[in-house]
Amino acid sequence: MSALQPTSSALFDCRDAFAATLDRVAERDDRVVIVVNDSIGSSKLGAFRKRWPERTVNVGIAEQNMVGVGSGLANGGKIPFVSAASCFLTARALEQIKADVAYTNANVKLVGQSPGVGYGELGPTHHSIEDYAWLRLLPNLAIVVPSDPWETAEAVEAAAAHEGPVFLRITRFGVPKLPRREDARFAIGKAETLREGTDVAVVACGVMVTRALEAADRLAAGGVSARVVNMASIAPLDEAAIQAAADLGAIVTVEEHSVRGGLGGAVAEIVAGYRPCPIRILGFPGFMPTGSPKFLFERFGLTAEGIETAARQAIAMRAA
Fold first, then answer.
1. pLDDT digits over 115-138, tens only?
2. Residue 300: CB partners within 8 Å, gap ≥ 6?
3. What residues pair up with 168 in beta bridges, in sequence order?
4. 272 and 299 Cβ atoms separated by less than 8 Å
5. Pair (148, 275) in one structural domain
6. What dihedral do alpha carbons 309, 133, 141, 120 form, nearest 10°?
7. What are the two backbone dihedrals, phi and then psi, of residue 263, each rounded to the nearest 5 degrees?
8. pTM for the whole thing?
9. Number of compact structural domains in the chain
């Protein structure tokens, strides 16, 4: 196996990786089109529109129509990437996602931009901490939450190649590149073990993965061996990876999402039917105050320190 690549200290906007990769995909495949709701700028799709205006559909602030148009384009043989703020795309157009996309298994790629608390200062109306809780109830719909620019690019490529609907959750604030082996590969439905461990498993997704790795370093300094699993694919889930985590006897899940119905709930569903063990689910408890992402992460324990504490609690629960 090749050595792990070093972690970068620089921060990257995953929307840049999304837009650049989509351009490359569109160069190869003229079926690729974009559908937006006046979200060209926030989706960083200005270069796409300039290069391919005839492949750009802007419906205005009409998210339900936007998803319906995407479904129609898919039925006509196109590969539409339907891009909008996740809070509006998944909440306002949920019926259309259910009936026009998931139910019909339409080849639509939904792109939830600036999810979680990316719009932190705009408050709960713009927070999107419920999106994959309700989306993962829908059959046929793959849900992918990339952790860094590399995984974002890989996920866009995989979504374009996947026959059927996909939801991509693309963060807006800066994240570092994660340490990975040079031969790393991304696949929808497969987890990625970034660090081996024997005492506790930390299962994370999206922007929380880097914090999980930092927590593992803190735990190691105290003699605790933590496995870090990047569960970018929320649906379908890598059940084997979750079962392997349960075999350790203690699990922490961490996500930029509600503690109800998201990654933590999905992991708990698998563990309950396989080998019950203590699970600490970290996320947001419900509506949050207005504030920056940093403030909200710190207030609700979505930090390396918070994950470390939860891991020690899960281990103590196992021993009790």
1. 999 998 988 999 999 999 999 999
2. 283, 284, 285, 288, 306
3. 111, 144
4. no
5. no
6. -80
7. -60, -45
8. 0.95
9. 2
